[in-house]
Design a protein that fits this description.
Elements (H helix, E strand, L loop, with lengths): L9 H19 L2 H18 L1 H4 L31 H37 L1 H15 L3 H12 L3 H27 L3 H8 L4 H12 L1 H24 L11 H8 L8 H28 L1 H11 L1
Amino acid sequence: MSHAVPAAELPQRRQMAAGMRLSARQFLRNPAAVAGLVVLVLICLAAMFAPWIAPRDPVRISLATKLRPPGPEFWLGTDFFGRDVLSRLIHGARVSLSVGILVISFSTIVGVPLGLFAGMVGGRLDNILMRLMDALLTFPPLLLGVAIVGLLGPDLRNVTLGLGIVQVPVLVRLVRASALAAREDTYVMAARALGASNLRIAMRHVLRNIMSPIVVQLTIGFSAAIIAEASLSFLGLGTQPPQPSWGRDLAEARRYMADAPWLFLAPTGAIMLSVLAVNFVGDGLRDALDPRSWRSRRKEKA
């Protein structure tokens, strides 16, 4: 059974759809953002179809082919156990991307409601929540992640939980600041005058109009999670052997940097390419979702 859309909401929905189309066009006009999106999509597809794309088993040991340089048989060479570096690189992308997605999902589920609550309610509860977030922000992010993983044990789930907790305070403060600014706007005051509850105002009006900074922050958090996961795996607190991981492969390649530099260059290049692609997409989204940047670019062209 279909539900009719109230007539009062139709103009608002049409305006939102037009704004999304305009933002998409602005995003596509940014060459760096489009290039980053293409690279990110290719990395995601490679990670999704890794069992079918990877030329060899990433954990299969073959001492007869150890430390082979890149060539026609092994495009990125082999490591000290004879494992194919390209196959480990493709399968390692699954770990980094899955951690990044889970971290931003956790931080969104926890951070956005807390930030909205603090911004809309205020008062003593807001002060208590912000002091708690300030206490978490006093710790360096990677050090806090190391402490959490050290307490819970070296495991990929614990890494995801630790990095998610690290990301929550940043998102809470961002959402709270945006909600404080948005709740004084005319449309919020009009909704409040018509008798709308704080929950309805927060979900239907405030959250809808502060999505731009949230989306940009999530892209930043995604790239930060990729780097942090690689750092924790490098320290031995993330994925455990023989599971492929960019950070773990970097740690194991340290002993062979002089004799087999491809072992170090391959995961380093993968991390750098992924982070650059995410950052380019984040910059493109920031410009596409901010009408002020459109005006500035038009003035520069004029």
